[in-house]
Structure formats: C-alpha cells, structure tokens
Structure prediction request, 190 residues.
Amino acid sequence: MNGIAELITAYGYIVLFLGVVVEGEIFPLAAGWLSSLGELDVFISMAVTFVGVIIGDIIWFKIGYRWGRPLLDRCGRFIWLKRSHIQALQQHFEENGKKTLFITKFIYSFGHSSIVIAGMARMNFKEFLKIDIPAGLLWSILFVVVGRFLGHSFILLSETMKNMTLAIIIVISALIIVQLFVRRKLTKKV
Prediction:
C-alpha cells in the first residue's frame, strides 16, 4: 500500500488515473490518504478517479463484449460453464443488469468482473453508461473520501477489504455447492 502511495507521490495523477483504470479501489484510497497529508488535491483526485473509472469500465465492458462470449464458448467447459449458464446470465442482465452493476461497483474486486459479464451478456452500451456514470461518480467520491478520513488506518483498511472479499467468495462458493448438491439430490428422486 505504501508503495502505491509512493508511486502516486512520485508520478502524480497519471499513476492515479492508470491505477484506477487497471486495478480500482486501492488507488483512490491512496489518493485520499495523500490528500489528507497535503500531497494531492482532494477534488482533483476525485476528478481524475472519476475519469479513470469511466474509461476503465468502458474498456472492461468492450473486452467482455468482444472477447468474452467466444472465450466462454471455447473454454467454458473447463470451468464447468454450460451454454445454459451463459443464457441464464444473459437473461439476468436483461432483467437486473442495472441493479447488479450498481451494487457490484461498491463490492471490492467484483466491479470489473460484473462489467465484463455485462459486456458478454450484450447489455446495451447506452444503458450501461446510464448506470455506470452515476455509480462511477459516487464510487470516486466515496473512495477518495474514505481514504482521506481513514488514511491513518490505510493498511488495515486494505487488508480488511481483501479479507471481506475472500469471505464473500467463500460464502458464495459454499452456497453454489449446496445449491448444486440439493438440485442433484432432487433430480435423482424424481
């Protein structure tokens, strides 16, 4: 974490921008922390973060749109994804895509993956932007402000977010396994 702060201090807003495009949460947190120390301007940090998150989201969406489905069609069987799963995912994004994108924007490490999935599901690009722009603005402000006011706990916050993500992934995986087990038992009885 301190390494990221040192990079941003050394190279300024360009590292913040590129970091937000590629990685996400940790860079605006670092910028907020640096703004509390007087190294960066908080409002410029928010603006750079906002531009970076929107450009990054568009790139991730286009990657999913262009290469996601062909990749899943060829390699999905290796990770137990069937065509029916992909169709269910597409239907989910047709019905609940806006809510899903907005909510996952604020869940550590789920933001980029849900955007790629939205692209794979062929979500309308204008509809994607209608939800992504306000969510990105709120996200930018929130993460810079959290970094600014919790800067003294920066490393602890980062580790907590990583642990929460791991816990969420474990819980979701367990729920999926239980669902598959129950479904298998019910189909055998019928």
User: Anything to note?
Assistant: Helices lie at 2-11, 13-22, 26-36, 42-75, 83-104, 111-120, 125-149, 154-189. The chain has eight helices and no strands. Residues 64 and 150 are 34 Å apart (CA to CA). The chain has one domain: 2-154.
